[in-house]
Amino acid sequence: MPPELIDSIIDHAHADPALLAACSLVSKAWFPAARHHLFSNAKLDAKNAPSFVNLIDSTFSTVAPFVRHIDAKDNCEGSRWVDSLFANLTSLPSVTSISLISSCDSPISQITLFTLCSFDRLVELKLAECEFGNFTEVQQLICSFPMLQSLYLEADWPEPNSIDPTVASPSPHLRELYLRCEMSHVLAWFLTQPSVAPVSKLTLHGLDAADLPVVSLYLQTLGPVLTHLTIPHIGSVVDSLSTDLNLSHNTGLRYLQIGIDADIAYLCMARALLSQVASPSFDEVELSFYSVRQGPKVARQWAELDALLNTPPLSSMTRATISTMSGSSLAKEVLPLSYERNILHVRRQ
């Protein structure tokens, strides 16, 4: 049997660790494909990290070349392990993706930052619930990955006195950016660079009024390269979002998701924001609600939003998604034109 066919068959067992382990013992020809699935994703926590480190440090270990992704979780509920053991993971030569969740109250230690920076082949980095000593640490870390394509940053750091340009630059290959932090600091720094990475997928979580001027300039700078924009929760900026942001510059936009409430202010804001869309390739809008509600007070706002979704330039759109925890059955009643045109889709959260 050709080895390519054997590899393809083993690929179908990617979710069965016991079968993969058995395959890896059959022959040397089966070994690489089975090990690829068994060890490509190393999920580590306080319980299994010490044994995994012992495994890759052992003299006869053959695991290290197969690890592509490190998913590390460190929290205060158990003993902290990242500071003491994370440096041992630098012996993994093929890592291209790291996810680190550090839900402790203290900042990420210098040794952990230094270790992270050593993975200079990363194309994907996710930092969640992390705390930095200062914004300079954030800048230095991001600049350590010249091939980075995807950055997820959920973190805190003290307010800097100023946003200073850096000698090194963020990766020019950055395409996906998720920010749940002081996003004005990050975006203002990006805008100081000679050229801004062409991010096509952008998520802004926790947007507030102080962020809007920088976010507006960043969206304008991205222009037509931005194809997906997600604002999961719109809170205090509901009255100013549609006036401070201008999506008409993003002529390549294909997808927009916003998290709103079913009251007059939010529905008016959603309509005003969508009316800015000037992209001929715009294909889908997703409106996320806690609950879909109807009534005399909001009937006109629902009707105007529905009409907008079905008139040019949005009439070429193929999907209008309502994502909600309750009231999903009301979606077709509040958006009847979209329902009749068969573009309305409802998803329960």
- First and last CA, distance: 47 Å
- The count of helical stretches stands at 14
Provide the spatial order of strands within the biggest beta sheet. Answer: 1-2-3-4-5-6-7-8-9-10-11-12
Report the helical percentage: 25-40%
Fold-level CATH name of the largest domain:
Leucine-rich repeat, LRR (right-handed beta-alpha superhelix)
| Total beta strands | 12
Q: Please outline the major beta sheet.
A: 12 strands, parallel
Q: What is the gyration radius calculated from CA atoms?
A: 24 Å
Shape: globular
Class derived from helix and strand content: alpha/beta
Q: Give the helices and strands as they follow along the chain.
A: HHHEHEHEHEHEEHEHEHEHEHEHHE
CATH architecture of the largest domain: Alpha-Beta Horseshoe
Give the count of structural domains. 3
- State the CATH class of the largest domain: Alpha Beta
Query: What fraction of the residues are assigned to beta strands by DSSP?
Result: 15-25%
Low-pLDDT residue intervals, each spanning 5 or more residues: none
Mean pLDDT: 90
Short key terms for the protein model shown above:
349 residues, alpha/beta, Leucine-rich repeat, LRR (right-handed beta-alpha superhelix), 3 domains, twelve-stranded parallel β-sheet, 12 strands, LRR_dom_sf, F-box domain-containing protein
What do these coordinates show?
- By secondary structure, the protein is α/β, with parallel strands linked by helices.
- The chain folds into 3 domains: 39 residues; 160 residues, Leucine-rich repeat, LRR (right-handed beta-alpha superhelix), CATH 3.80.10; 148 residues.
- It is 32% helix and 20% strand.
- Strands 1-2-3-4-5-6-7-8-9-10-11-12 form a 12-stranded parallel β-sheet.
- Strand 10, helix 12 and strand 11 form a beta-alpha-beta unit.
- Helix 8 crosses helix 9.
- The mean pLDDT is 90.
